[in-house]
Amino acid sequence: MSPMPAQPISPLDGRYRAAVSPVGDHLSEAALNRARVHIEVEWLIFQTELGLFGTEALSGEQQRALRAFASDFGQPEIDRLAEIEATTRHDVKAVEYLVREQLDRLGLNRVAELTHFACTSEDINNLSYALTVRAAVREVWLPAFDHVIAKLRAWAEEHRAAPMLSHTHGQPATPTTVGKEFAVMAFRLDRIRRQIEATEYLGKFSGATGTFSAHLVADPERDWPQLSRDFVTGLGLTWNPLTTQIESHDWQAELYARISHANRVLHNICTDVWTYISMGYFKQVPQAGATGSSTMPHKVNPIRFENAEANLELSSALFDSLAATLVTSRLQRDLTDSSSQRNIGVALGHSLLALDNISRGLGEIALDDTKLAADLDANWEVLGEAIQTVIRAEVAAGRSTIEDPYALLKELTRGRRVGQAELVEFVNGLDIGDEAKARLAALTPADYVGVAASLVDQLEA
Q: How is domain 380-444 classified at the architecture level of CATH?
């Protein structure tokens, strides 16, 4: 057998690339290196604007040229960086040399020694990851997450009054409405979204062991912690003043735990919708040309939700591992974080793929009103809760002498099918007031939904 041409190992870079490619714009190796170049350039410009060591500020044209080198970072720079790293065997040092080459081309050798000045690799890396992760979350993942929330909200509003038999422990229970159940889903995700949006993206810029030692020796008169703060916050990040050689990654652990939490709520949504499809409450809308089963032509499989489940599980497994690994570093520094952080994009990619499937899946289902109504009409015994509760109220009000209303209804309904006529006859024979009897006799499972429809309005609160 002849060898296969080079193929991607990860399905995210193969089968599913179209759905997740925007993540690669921020969290690929190339995107990380683009961010590293950006940090190196900004640090150099920052120093010249301060006039460190007698340097003059770069002209506006020179600054624009350097920043364009960072923002236009593309295949030629990727290839050249690979050549340099083949010699340096150090990724950040290769970036430094790449920037120096550009300075030479621009005739700026006079400031070349300010490239990577007083920096440890982690000063560049931690800021690069903070910027790339923030961009990926805000520009790619959150919009996809918001799209799913919007679809759930739309379902909640459209079907706010559609009655549906509930199931607790898999058994028929007090009815609800389809809209209220979707509102619960949207509400849960909204809350987590606010937490993710409020994430602090921290950065450090304090040298080899977080002490500004080299900085102070080079220029004892400067307030280096303040300059560090100014530089980090100027990038739109939150300054971390107390670190070892690395930024402690606590913000990453917090963020990944929250996204993992969102994944698990989304997973719960998938399993519930899948179950509603299995019960016949939701119909799947056939897609032109699609095959549901390779052998059973009648089938329309809920593949969107099943695919999403698998990808959410993979995403959470990776994010959980990242959150656990990144908060520990031996003494000042070890490299476990370096390898693990290269998988942030993989973790986010699996979640993004799941969001795409959920969004598509929600657009390919519809209510089966006939099935919903039939199940409600077949389970009149769920009104046992209503009847025993009204009896309790009547006893409390002095209009009834019935003892143990719960036991009375349990004897009538537990494990039994009870129809409308039987329940009405039972109600009419109760020792309760006439108004209560009339209210209970008129009640149907489809009516017994409380304020479910109006609870949907809580999404706007």
A: Orthogonal Bundle (1.10)
